[in-house]
Specification:
- This protein is of the alpha/beta class and 462 residues long.
- The protein has 4 domains: 2-121, PAS domain (Beta-Lactamase, 2-Layer Sandwich), CATH 3.30.450.20; 128-306, 3-Layer(aba) Sandwich (Rossmann fold), CATH 3.40.50.300; 314-385, Helicase, Ruva Protein, domain 3 (Orthogonal Bundle), CATH 1.10.8.60; 403-458, no CATH class.
- 39% of the residues lie in helices and 15% in strands.
- It contains 18 helices and 14 strands.
- It has a 5-stranded antiparallel beta sheet.
- A hairpin with an 8-residue loop joins strand 9 and strand 10 (269-270).
- Helix 2 packs across helix 18 (432-441) and helix 17 (421-428) crosses helix 18.
- It binds adenosine-5'-triphosphate (ATP) and magnesium ion.
- Residues 173-174, 238, 278 line the site of magnesium ion.
- Keywords: Activator, ATP-binding, Nucleotide-binding, Transcription, Transcription regulation, Two-component regulatory system.
- This is Sigma-54 factor interaction domain-containing protein.
Length: 462
């Protein structure tokens, strides 16, 4: 027994460190023990520790526990691990609805009077599941920043506001533009795509605005352009930064007036078009450099969305790989294959400069070149195989830092992420919900703007 007694402080330290809430109550709902995570999940800030389950506003947790445990099968005698029963509840904490998952059991005491409750915050996960199922499931992600983007897409989709989607090549801008149209109330109307960078400059005007009969010589008939083709629907202008200056002016006028003149015609044509534009160059930077019209930028960027590159959402890598493998299996590629540990390491460490598109082609290459249905480093494209990866430094401390250190660490990450909590959480190697809880525990203001100290630049996500 002496050894067990010695372990108690260690066990307490572990329980106070974990992200799950842990509560021990008696039969009347009096709280006998709570770890910091439980208090953060259930109690409003400044309310002090939870004395009784009855203190939790808006929900009768004691009654819920009674009902669940009443129906629970009896714990087998001498059972070492308790029979945990799971149930979910929505609780309003700090004016915000939280989806909590509870695991509970009668704790092993002589009279069966104690109750052990373990809580997990599933709010972000549930929100993501709902969003993804609504967006017809073809956008694969579990990344908090992407989740926020999906929420923004859902919010703006039913409006007429122009949307500007920016991000590196292959991050999914076109994918998101199509999703936006699908979720809009123009979804049954045309969705017209036009890539300004892949069309020769002399042809862009006629392609976009159309041309009158004979505009390019006798044999040319009249032709409606993309703007007219998108009438009552959505026009997706990809690589809008490649639009020449005189056409930037013409497009701005068309958007302001809802009308424009086709090439070789004086007769205005009307079009009611919802604009979505995309660029993998920073459009605001181009405005500042005098390469893009500021007034057109403001017209297009009413609702800007920036899609993060894959290296900023490494958690999506396994998901996307699995997604593309499923798609390839439908096309006859092997379904039963595995990765060698080295190949897996390379796929995770590689910075994916071509983002999701590069992943899509890399996995196809790997499946063509796999050896006995195992993807080995030699199965991967040359760039990935020869990627000279740097060791990734974890910023997760081995032991819990002091509150002051933890506060500085969080403030530094927030400053470095420009206040973006999802990104800051990534820098810290924790999820967003945990960051949110820590911020409240340490009373870190959401608006605090603190300059990042020098050493913060050494931080890497893990
Ligand atoms: N989150 C995602 N889930 C599933 N597929 C995705 C996702 N993001 C991108 N894709 C797929 O990856 C490929 C590249 O995406 P997309 O064409 O949308 O990138 P992009 O940002 O528009 O690239 P570019 O800048 O070159 O136009 C497409 O086949 C797209 O369907
Ligand atoms: Mg695109």
């Amino acid at each position: 027994m002496r050894e067990i007694d010695d372990l108690v402080p260690l066990l307490e330290a572990i329980v106070s460190y974990i992200d799950e809430g842990v509560l021990l109550t008696d039969r009347d709902g009096t709280v006998l023990y709570q770890n910091p995570a439980a208090a953060e999940l259930l109690v409003a800030p400044g309310a002090g520790p939870l004395q009784s389950l009855a203190d939790i506003r808006g929900v009768d947790l004691k009654d819920a526990l009674d009902r669940v445990l009443e129906r629970a099968p009896a714990q087998p005698e001498n059972a070492i691990t308790p029979n945990l029963i799971q149930f979910d509840m929505r609780i309003k904490v700090r004016d915000e609805m939280r989806d909590l998952e509870f695991h509970c059991c009668r704790a092993c005491d002589t009279y069966g009077n104690l109750r052990l409750v373990i809580l997990r915050d599933k709010t972000d996960e549930r929100r993501l599941e709902t969003l993804l199922s609504r967006s017809s499931g073809d956008l694969v992600t579990k990344d908090p920043t992407m989740m926020e983007i999906l929420e923004r897409v859902e919010r703006v989709a039913p409006m007429q506001a122009p949307v500007l989607i920016q991000g590196e090549t292959g991050t999914g801008k076109t994918h998101i533009a199509r999703l936006l149209h699908r979720l809009s109330n123009r979804s049954r109307r045309p969705f017209v795509e036009f890539n300004c960078a892949s069309t020769p400059v002399p042809l862009i005007e006629a392609e976009l605005f159309g041309h009158a009969r004979g505009a390019f010589g006798e044999i040319n008939g009249e032709r409606a352009g993309k703007l007219k083709a998108a009438d009552t629907g959505t026009l997706f202008l990809d690589e809008v930064s490649a639009l020449p200056a005189h056409l930037q002016t013409k497009l701005l006028k068309a958007l302001q007036d809802g009308a424009f003149e086709p090439v070789g015609s004086d007769t205005p044509v009307t079009a009611d078009v919802r604009m979505i534009t995309a660029s993998n160059r920073n459009l605001r930077g181009l405005v500042e450099a005098g390469e893009f019209r500021a007034d057109l930028y403001y017209r297009l960027a009413v609702f800007p969305i920036t899609v993060p590159p894959i290296r900023e959402r490494p958690g999506d890598i396994p998901l996307l790989l699995a997604h593309f493998c499923d798609k390839l299996a439908e096309r006859g590629y092997p379904r039963d294959f595995s990765y060698s540990p080295e190949a897996r390491r390379l796929l995770i460490d590689y910075p994916w400069p071509g983002n999701v598109r590069e992943m899509e082609t890399a996995i196809e290459h790997a499946l063509i070149c796999c050896v006995d249905n195992v993807i080995v480093p030699e199965s991967l494209p040359h760039d990935i195989r020869n990627f000279d990866h740097l060791p990734v430094v974890s910023v997760k401390p081995a032991v819990r830092p002091s509150e002051a250190d933890e506060k500085v660490q969080i403030q530094t990450a927030l400053a470095r992420a420009g206040g973006n909590k999802s990104l800051a959480a990534k820098y810290l190697g924790i999820d967003r919900t945990t960051l949110w809880r820590k911020m409240r525990r340490l009373r870190i203001s959401e608006r605090a703007q603190i300059a990042a100290p020098e050493d913060a630049r050494e931080m890497r996500t893990n």
